[in-house]
Design a protein that fits this description.
Strand content: 25-35%
Distance between the termini: 46 Å
Number of strands: 30
Radius of gyration: 25 Å
Number of helices: 12
Low-confidence stretches: 314-318, 353-358
Shape: globular
Helix content: 25-40%
């Protein structure tokens, strides 16, 4: 069956949004947003613009039909708004930030680890499983709304952070396919999707907004992460084109950190009243402060906002405790704490307060987003001169607040000789990525402006050197570039290098690295040494070959061949130099390094 729709899915850290358009829309797509039915309370189903990316894992006594959905009965978990609400009352049974866990290579993303640090009686799930459940929910919601055009038969574009490495993208693909997305779905970077949403709104007028030589900073600050991309505007034969020239690292700092900062401010006011909050109340306060922050930062928001915490102590059972948060205090806290004035030379502090760090997500120790932006522009400059954007496109729920957009714009303009201009954009920043993904899919089918970019990183395989062994010392490791920065989708390359022996009869592992800054390296280039800032190690690659009775040796000499598929997925192959055999290397996401 031919696809009738193109569907854009923003699998967000805090919210999942779906937008769609008919493929046969002429001239311009008529993009709409899917209302997603979900539980808002036991037995209550409502259709909302997004599906909060939370899962509630209820205890066994809460079974029954209270969690039934229009398309399924006997549900043993809850996804969406009710799950988000339960995260305040039952945090030990609430899964959140699964998307950030997918990018955390220091844990087994297939293992049941979420909710993190939950008691043993909770049946935990893996980050991959959580992502699968969110996608299953939106697939079922689509099929309920469009029974004659099931989602698996449509053209689907699923977005991922630009900062996701090849391993995190592969895990996302795995979750998506197991949930029921069509095999030919496409991955698209979220900052690019935000630009496509802007292109859709502007139509042909976008060429009057940008000019050759402009550099567009896409600054996307969502609930859990900050994602940065730099897009250049170039003149090609008299036609303007857009090219993604840089992406930032995966930064775990965003709206959740701001909610926690507001909660800390509120806790000090409770303390001044003589109220000491326990762990349960502190989590509840965190979620209550999310609503307070959004209210106080909204246009024409109130001067104060009440925050209430249910009583827990012997004197407070059945009662409540209240304070009023002042708008100006919250504004000052968030603007100066997360968007402080700084110079381009001011980079994030990496200093830890202790030699012991609790295991979990690697949140940024420095929450100053302006300093992270300064680091990003410095890393991606030319000849020691930082990149200076002339335009900025804001995205993510954090930038709904005028105060925060204005401060970020002021800091950017401070770094530039000329004021940095914002692109005209919709006030609905929460749906921009999904809408942009739908527009991108429509443009692929019907023709339209496309952002060139290719791979956002260079990729490397670690190969041990040969030679005499030294007791107690590992062999020196060299990093061989197998994918250059910007390698286009649908292309492949043979990697010139010395032959590598692929061991037979057992699993063989290759250490795997990536870099967002070494843009000059070409396939076959070999690094003898590097800093942690240049190359970041991620999951290893592995292959297992059965023994071959026809071969006398216990290994096969091979060379590498790399490929970036039309769907945006990375593949690395070992090609025999003696026969026509070839073996695909798979990510080993379970291995501890």
């Amino acid at each position: 069956m031919a696809a009738a729709f193109v569907i854009g899915i923003d699998l967000g850290t805090t919210n999942t949004v779906v937008a769609y358009a008919r493929i046969d829309d002429t001239d311009v797509p008529q993009i709409q947003q899917l209302a997603i039915p979900q539980l808002t309370a036991p037995g209550t189903v409502e259709s909302l613009p997004s599906l909060p990316s939370f899962i509630y894992l209820p205890p066994s006594h809460e079974s029954g039909n209270a969690f039934d959905l229009p398309w399924q009965t006997g549900m043993e978990f809850v996804a969406g708004q009710m799950a988000r609400n339960q995260s305040a009352e039952m945090p030990e049974r609430s899964v959140g930030a699964a998307k950030s866990w997918l990018a955390h290579s220091r844990v087994d993303r297939h293992a049941p680890i979420l909710p993190w640090n939950a008691p043993e009686e909770v049946d935990k799930i893996s980050p991959v499983e959580a992502s699968r459940r969110y996608l299953e929910h939106v697939i079922a919601a689509w099929n309920e709304a469009f029974p004659d055009t099931p989602l698996i038969d449509q053209q689907v574009v699923l977005t991922v952070p630009a900062s996701f490495d090849a391993s995190a993208r592969e895990l996302t693909r795995e979750a998506a396919l197991s949930a029921g997305l069509p095999a030919n779905f496409v991955l698209l970077e979220e900052p690019q999707a935000a630009v496509y949403a802007w292109l859709d709104r502007e139509g042909d007028q976008w060429r009057e907004e940008l000019r050759p030589g402009d550099q567009l900073l896409v600054c996307d600050v969502g609930g859990g992460t900050t994602d940065l991309s730099l897009i250049g505007v170039v003149d090609q034969g008299g036609e303007l084109s857009l090219q993604r020239v840089a992406v930032g690292n995966h930064l775990l700092v965003g709206g959740d950190n701001m909610d926690l900062a507001v909660a800390h401010l509120a806790a000090t006011q409770f303390a001044e009243k003589g109220v000491s909050l326990d762990a349960w109340q502190s989590v509840s306060l965190w979620h209550a402060c999310r609503a307070a922050k959004e209210s106080l930062l909204a246009e024409n928001g109130p001067e104060t906002h009440p925050v209430t915490v249910l009583g827990r102590g012997s004197k407070l059972i059945g009662g409540t405790v209240n304070i009023d948060l002042e708008r100006q205090a919250v504004v000052d806290l968030l603007v100066n704490g997360f968007f402080p004035q700084c110079d381009l030379a001011d980079h994030p502090s990496r200093q830890r307060q202790s030699g012991f760090v609790q295991l979990g997500l690697p949140f940024e120790s420095d929450t100053a987003i302006t300093r992270h932006v300064a680091q990003f522009l410095t890393d991606h400059g030319v000849d020691g001169t930082p990149a200076i954007p002339s335009r900025v496109l804001f995205n993510g729920g954090v930038f709904r607040a005028d105060y925060l957009r204005e401060r970020m714009l002021k800091v950017l303009s401070h770094w530039n000789a000329d004021p940095v201009q914002t692109l005209n954009q919709s006030s609905d920043l929460d749906s921009a990525v999904a809408r942009g993904a739908a527009y991108y899919g429509w443009a692929k089918c019907n023709g339209g402006i496309r952002i060139r970019g290719g791979t956002a990183r260079s990729y490397y395989v670690g190969v041990e050197t040969s030679g005499l062994a030294i007791p107690g010392a590992p062999r020196p490791l060299r990093a061989v570039c197998v994918v250059p920065f910007g390698m286009e989708e649908g292309s492949q390359t043979d990697v010139p290098s010395a032959e590598v022996g692929l061991v037979l009869g057992e699993s063989v592992h290759f250490r795997f690295f990536s870099s967002s800054t070494r843009k000059q390296d070409q396939p076959g280039d070999t690094l003898d040494r590097w800093s942690d800032d240049e190359l970041q190690e991620t999951d290893s690659l592995e292959a297992e070959l059965p023994p071959d009775d026809k071969l006398d040796d216990d290994y096969v000499p091979v060379r590498f061949q790399s490929r970036v598929t039309e769907l945006g997925m990375f593949e690395l192959w070992c090609v025999s130099t003696q026969t026509d055999q070839r073996w695909k290397l798979e990510f080993s996401v379970r291995e501890e390094r």
